[in-house]
């Protein structure tokens, strides 16, 4: 018997249809077992399609799920109707009812945003490249173009790889220090020449610096919690040939 889809929500987004989903509640098997929604994975296409339908129906019944071709960029697109072909971008915004904006992750940070008063929502995929490049800033600007106000925007950062699980080398840390020396606070000393990076805290910092005053962090580690989440890094460390992707969804 397949378990119901597990939906994680955040207080600041109360009143807005949203959810951070993991691997619980899907039909995929093997290394993709659970709610794998990755079109680009090597999972059975029919299983992925069923999982995407289950995910969308669990958060926003009757809505059309819209996702992008994610490329670890800072690009954000405004969605007015479903795409014929997914654009290359890493964030979406809309003010149109009936659309469920979805972001796929497997360690990167999913960010859901809403200005409830304006009826404007956004979703961003914040891997380290996108986060450093300003994907959340692009999302906020695109929301403002639809009538949102950043002082009213609430945001939540969903399950992602935690600092304890995210080891990086010195060159990685130097990229962030070169952008802003204060970014050193997001890195803890690791073994010789390595650091532990707090992606979730960095993304929260970028949101706060942009003027978003209500930001929730779920504090859930995708790498450490195999039963609930897919993880690219965990699969890589195990030498597995592929990995599943989870989805985070928001809609008006």
Count of DSSP H/I helices: 6
How large is the radius of gyration?
Answer: 17 Å
What is the CATH top level name? Answer: Alpha Beta
Number of domains: 1
Structural notes for this entry:
The protein is 24% helix and 25% strand. The protein starts with 6 loop residues before the first strand and ends with a strand. A six-stranded mixed beta sheet has the order 4-5-8-7-9-13. Strands 1-2-14-6-3 form a five-stranded mixed beta sheet. Strands 10-12-11 form a three-stranded antiparallel beta sheet. It has helices spanning 45-59, 128-133, 135-145, 170-179, 199-209, 232-238, and strands at 7-8, 17-21, 64-66, 76-78, 91-94, 99-105, 109-115, 120-126, 154-157, 167-169, 187-189, 194-197, 214-217, 246-251. Strand 1 (7-8) and strand 2 form a beta hairpin. It has a single domain, classed as CNF1/YfiH-like putative cysteine hydrolases (4-Layer Sandwich). The mean pLDDT is 97. It is globular. It is of the alpha+beta class.
